[in-house]
Design a protein that fits this description.
Helix content is 74%, strand content 0%. The protein is mainly alpha-helical. It comes from Hydrogenophaga electricum.
Length: 266
């Protein structure tokens, strides 16, 4: 098993992390998806189905739905752990099927469970904050998407939408910095959560501009998937997940073609 420090000391890849890297990660993610599409399609379809369930449950309470869908961005990385394993297997010259992915979920890795719970708490906190902000600040009731667009996004008075975006960014930024490397590392190694999070923050601090670009690209792609009646998520979610694996490999200098045996702690 390779520790986080050992990962960082391995021979760097031929291409250093720079502004070109997010585009490269997406290209590699697309290649992984095309090579083994079934696990990705299953993940994407399940997440899209969850989004449709949210729409059905709170379709007439968009003040709540806005926070729920933006909170989805916070929790989504932990739901893609199976796809990190698929990309890891592809780098080792293997084709991981749904059985292997299901085995990862059944392993009950306590580190992933704890990290997922923390992300869930962060997402819930943002849903409640978003709902409270919109209902208390907006002069008009927000029940439908058109209400949110008219009275929040396109409101003549500055304030509500700008504060809503700012609060969302303030929450999303530390969550992104804590998870962008940490979650793939928890799948790939047996390091504790604290060490994985520290490595994630280190990677973001070492490459701030490429990581900001990567975060914006992820948000835009997820937004694109949402405005296509969530159908775009079926493909975009796995491509982003596979790309995130390659981001982790570059940021930790882990050879993408190498293989680290997983051994989760009890």
């Amino acid at each position: 098993m390779t520790s986080a420090s050992a990962l960082s000391s391995q021979t760097p890849g031929p291409i250093p992390v720079g502004l070109h890297s997010p585009w490269r990660w997406l290209a590699l993610g697309w290649a992984d998806f095309r090579r083994n599409p079934l696990p990705g399609l299953v993940h994407g379809a399940l997440l899209a189905a969850f989004g449709w369930l949210l729409l059905w449950a709170v379709h007439d309470r968009f003040w709540l739905l806005a926070g729920a869908f933006s909170g989805f961005l916070i929790v989504a990385p932990i739901l893609a752990t199976g796809l990190y394993h698929v990309s890891r297997a592809a780098g080792a010259g293997r084709r991981a099927g749904l059985g292997e992915v299901a085995g990862l979920w059944r392993s009950g890795d306590g580190r992933l469970v704890r990290f997922g719970l923390l992300l869930g708490l962060a997402g819930t906190g943002w849903v409640l904050t978003s709902a409270g902000l919109i209902t208390l600040w907006s002069a008009e009731p927000i029940r439908q998407p058109v209400d949110f667009l008219r009275h929040v996004v396109l409101a003549r008075e500055l304030g509500l939408f700008e504060v809503w975006l700012l609060l969302g960014a303030l929450l999303a930024a530390p969550v992104f910095a804590s998870s962008v490397v940490a979650i793939p590392m928890l799948v790939d190694t047996s390091v504790p959560v604290s060490m994985a999070v520290a490595e994630s923050w280190r990677a973001v601090a070492d490459h701030p501009v490429p990581m900001v670009l990567w975060a914006v690209m992820i948000a835009l792609l997820i937004g694109l998937g949402m405005v296509t009646a969530l159908l775009g998520l079926v493909v975009l979610v796995p491509v982003i997940a596979h790309a995130s694996w390659h981001a982790y490999c570059d940021l930790t200098r882990r050879p993408a073609s190498g293989h680290v045996t997983q051994s989760a702690p009890a």
